[in-house]
Design brief:
Elements: E1 4-7, H1 17-32, E2 36-39, H2 53-63, H3 90-99, E3 103-106, H4 110-122, H5 138-146, E4 152-155, E5 162-167, E6 171-176, E7 184-186, H6 194-204, E8 209-213, H7 220-230, E9 236-240, E10 243-244, H8 260-265, H9 270-278, H10 293-299, E11 310-311, H11 314-327, H12 330-344, H13 353-360, H14 370-373, H15 397-412, H16 419-433, H17 437-449, H18 458-465, H19 467-481
Parallel strand pairs: 1-2, 8-9, 10-11
Antiparallel strand pairs: 3-4, 4-7, 5-6
The structure holds glutamic acid.
Glutamic acid binds near residues 9, 10, 42, 212 and 216.
């Protein structure tokens, strides 16, 4: 049988990382079996409707490479793929269940239901429909229908016994039927509830695997009873655990960074985000954790999914982003990095940007970190001479002054300011003086950058700044130390 999976987002205008992960797993399951990945927009909750929200779904999925085989815009054999356009067909399915004894008309009005609920709450019973209309006679029903009394159609859940459903991660889950509510399938306006529509839609769209958040776990027995009542084969269920911000809080819009767009705005690369979210709740078999989407299609397996919540780890995401940045060609990196470099390098446009990019690339984990790293190029920042003291390099203000005084004439005499040229000059001096590299390089780097951490070392920075600026900064260092 062909594998057919579906991603069924509600258009909220916001792609939560958890939803994107559901989409990714859904896509991977379909693609690794050569199956179909279907997009169904579940827009029936009009209160949650947000203008342009469907585009957020399309754009995010496409950017991430999660292209769907069937969906609202690309069509397909089992459409329409927008739930609100399917509304008229559900009632007849519910009526079939009424005929077969698996559902019934309920004429209870709001006031009565509220009364029942109050009594249940007061008696500490979990609120449930009291099944008042479950056993109305055919005559009573006809009478009420003829009188035009508004009604809903409810699922007739068995009152005894148990229902078991199978989840690919959690195994068999069994519940007592007596705990299940006779939930509404069709509302008074003739429209289905979400709980009914998703079952009928999944069946009509011939969905074989349903991946969704485990907040739907509790409803799954009722869904299974519906499949059984229709005589339909239920799909394979894969309920995935939540993504947490920490041990107690869920990753949510309120506590930040919960959406795909938040991460992209922070400077993360799409490929890195996709790679990282695959690891939220899924463990690859080997040590490697860096996978392209194509590799994920090969590597992913349902049995690597976890039963415990995944914790969103921004440090790990950053490290993975760094791995993707290192994979870029030097040209591609320069192109992406340049706008960030230019945020703080505004005056000097004569520097070798390719050289700067080449020293940045191995140490950049996030493009947005770049401006701060190169903010010493236009002008030497204020710095404290204590920065010249380095325990491991065995330098202090005194040795640094000596080193800079030795470096100055060497650099003044230097004509070749390429990286190789500066390298030969400084290392020639190290050798001549019989000192450790750091004895010369640390003070030089401090004098010309005024910073504790720089992309590249003294040699690259001298070459970048050029002769005039380097010499001016070394002189300034000598002055400060004297
Ligand atoms: N529209 C539902 C949601 O966004 C989908 C639930 C499901 O996948 O069954 O939560």
């Amino acid at each position: 049988m062909e594998v057919r999976t579906r991603f069924a987002p509600s258009p909220t205008g916001y792609m939560h990382i958890g939803n994107l992960r559901t989409a990714l797993f859904t896509y991977l399951i379909a693609k690794q079996s050569g199956g179909k990945f279907i997009l169904r927009i579940e827009d029936t909750d009009q209160e949650r409707y947000v203008e342009g929200a469907v585009d957020v779904i399309y754009d995010t999925l496409r950017n991430c490479g999660l292209n769907w085989d069937e969906g609202p815009d690309v069509g397909g054999p089992v459409g329409p793929y927008i739930q609100s356009e399917r509304m008229s067909m559900f009632k007849e399915y519910a009526e079939k269940l009424v005929e077969s004894g698996h559902a019934y008309y309920c004429f209870c009005d709001k006031e009565r239901l509220e009364e029942v609920r109050k009594i249940q709450v007061a008696s500490r019973i979990s609120p449930m429909y009291d099944r008042h209309c479950r056993n109305l006679s055919p005559e009573e029903i006809k009478e009420k229908l003829d009188a035009g009394i508004p009604y809903v159609i409810r699922q007739k859940v068995p009152t005894e016994g148990t229902t078991t459903f199978h989840d690919e991660i959690y195994g068999d889950i069994t519940v007592e039927n007596s705990t299940l509510d006779d939930q509404i399938l069709i509302k008074t306006d003739g429209m289905p509830t979400y709980n009914f529509a998703n079952v009928v839609d999944d069946h009509l769209m011939q969905i074989t695997h349903v991946v969704r958040g485990n907040e739907y776990l509790a409803s799954s027995p009722k869904y299974n009873l519906l499949y059984e009542a229709f005589g339909w084969e239920p799909p394979k269920y894969i309920h995935v655990e939540h993504i947490m911000k920490n041990a107690t809080e869920k990753l949510s819009k309120r506590n930040g960074d919960a959406s795909f767009n938040d991460l992209i705005e922070k400077g993360f690369m799409t490929e890195a985000v996709v790679n990282y979210i695959a690891l939220l709740g899924w463990a690859p078999k080997g040590e490697n954790e860096i996978f392209t989407l194509e590799e994920l299609v090969q590597e992913f397996s349902i049995d690597g999914l976890s039963k415990s919540p995944a914790i969103f780890d921004p440090v790990k995401l950053k490290a993975i982003n760094g791995a993707y940045i290192r994979k870029l060609s030097p040209e591609a990196f320069l192109e992406k990095a340049l706008p960030y470099i230019r945020q703080t390098v505004k005056v000097r446009d004569d520097i070798d940007f390719a050289l700067l990019a080449s020293v940045l690339q191995p140490r950049t984990e996030l493009f947005t970190d770049i401006p701060e790293q190169v903010d010493f190029i236009d002008a030497l920042p204020e710095y404290d001479t204590a920065m010249y003291c380095h325990k491991k390099m065995k330098t202090n203000e005194e040795t640094s002054l000596e080193a800079l005084n030795a470096v100055l004439p060497v650099l003044e005499a230097l004509d070749d300011w390429s990286v190789d040229g500066v390298h030969s000059a400084l290392f020639g001096l190290v050798e001549k003086m019989g000192v450790k590299n750091g004895y010369i390089l640390w003070p030089v780097r401090t004098a010309i950058s005024g910073k504790q951490f720089t992309p590249g070392g003294a040699v690259e920075i001298c070459s970048l700044l050029g002769k005039e600026e380097t010499i001016a900064r070394i002189k300034k260092g000598i002055e400060k130390l004297s």
